[in-house]
Amino acid sequence: MAALAVAGVVGPGLAHYYLNGAGHPLVANVVFAVGYLGAAFLFWNGWLRHIDIGPA
């Protein structure tokens, strides 16, 4: 899970940085948003969804 969290933040962040530097700011923003939200969804679906936090 830690690797997913790191890759989900660092990967889209680096892609955003390099695409922005290449002169593609809209594509950079889309790539960052999709990558970051995709990692958040995978983190939730793989770990947090299975935790029972309802009343005991």
Mind explaining what this structure looks like?
Keywords: Membrane, Transmembrane, Transmembrane helix. The chain crosses the membrane at residues 25-44. The chain is an all-alpha fold and 56 residues long. It has one domain (2-50). It has helices at 2-21, 25-46. The model has no long low-confidence stretch (mean pLDDT 87).
Defining key terms:
mainly alpha; 56 residues; single chain
Task: Please indicate the percent range of residues in DSSP E strands (runs of 2 or more).
Answer: under 5%
Overall shape: elongated
Low-confidence stretches: none
Specify the number of helices. 2
**Largest sheet features:** none
Counting copies of identical and different chains, the oligomeric state is single chain
The amount of helix comes to over 70%
Rounded radius of gyration (Å): 15 Å
End-to-end Cα distance, whole Å, is 27 Å
What is the number of domains?
A: 1
The secondary-structure class comes to mainly alpha
Mean pLDDT: 87
Tell me the number of strands: 0
Task: Return the string of H and E elements.
Answer: HH
Keywords: Membrane, Transmembrane, Transmembrane helix
InterPro entries: DUF7996
Transmembrane segments: 25-44
Give a short overview.
Keywords: Membrane, Transmembrane, Transmembrane helix. 75% of the residues lie in helices and 0% in strands. By secondary structure, it is mainly α.
